[in-house]
Amino acid sequence: MIRLRLSLELNYQVLEPGSDFIFNIHAAHTERQIVLDELLTLNQNLQTTVETDPTTGNRYLRLRAAPGALQVRYSATVDLLHYVAQPGQIAEVPVAMLPAGVLGYIYPSRYCQSDRLYKLARHEFGQLTQGYSRVQFIRDWVLQRTTFAMNTSNSNTSAIDTLIDTAGVCRDFAHLMIALCRASNIPARFTTGIDYGADPILGPTDFHAYVEVYLGGRWYIFDSSGTAIPMGFVRFGTGRDAADVAFATIFGSVISSAPIISIQAIAGSDGQLRVPYHCNDALSTDG
């Protein structure tokens, strides 16, 4: 069991006449991700609603902010009790046997145009042994052909754009890996959290996008950009692509500042400090 303490602060200058916000910044509740405590504070005296999507488990904070400064702070203590498996024992699930709730993740989506990548996927991955190792190969293929570089993409950049430009940030790596998995008939979804363990040379701690792939009856974690430590990922949201799980969706005119985020391992209930590390095991925080 790994225990993590996280905090984030979001600052906005809201312009007239005010703005509505939908935030996806609360740690998700899963059977293997236990939220021990959490605290949300706002500098404006606002009515807020936090609701959980019954299908995805994503937790959404909704509010209407008045003109002026808006500061949103969230902190939580989370236990991760990973399901750990040997990659060689994890098989792909035939499309005909996928649960209904997984089917949406084999279709193309706004940023993951898998229908345009079938030929490429067949050529590059079609002859590989099916299972976890094939997904790992797809992840490595993306990593080898894409350079992590800030300010090389924007909110409209898709998997096809990243394939052509061969550069991007974690969001772009995730979209390309997801599109290639779906083009190979493997369900994959976009997942958000915090970039635990990222090299400080990449900048301050930030939100992170990674991939979960449905194999052997559960969703397994893959860090498509290779910039962080998957064992330390706290899940916020999952969706078809970034359009489904933006940390903030804003309906109005605002001026945004960079988020202020921290995450660290702390001692568990037994007093032992267990720090996330890179490993070759397959990890899941799904049910």
Cα-atom radius of gyration: 19 Å
**What is the SS-derived class?**
alpha+beta
Characterize the largest beta sheet: strand count, sense, and whether it forms a barrel: 5 strands, antiparallel
CATH-scheme architecture of the largest domain: Roll
Shape: globular
Describe the structure.
15% of the residues lie in helices and 35% in strands. By secondary structure, the chain is α+β, with helices and mostly antiparallel strands. It has 2 domains: 2-81 and 247-266, Immunoglobulin-like (Sandwich); 85-245, C8orf32 fold, CATH 3.10.620. The strands form 5 sheets. Strands 1, 3, 6, 15 and 16 form a 5-stranded antiparallel β-sheet that branches. The protein has a 4-stranded antiparallel β-sheet with strand order 4-5-2-14, with no helix packed on it. A 4-stranded antiparallel β-sheet has the order 12-11-10-13. Helix 2 (132-145) packs across helix 4 and helix 3 (159-165) packs across helix 4. The radius of gyration is 19 Å and the shape is globular.
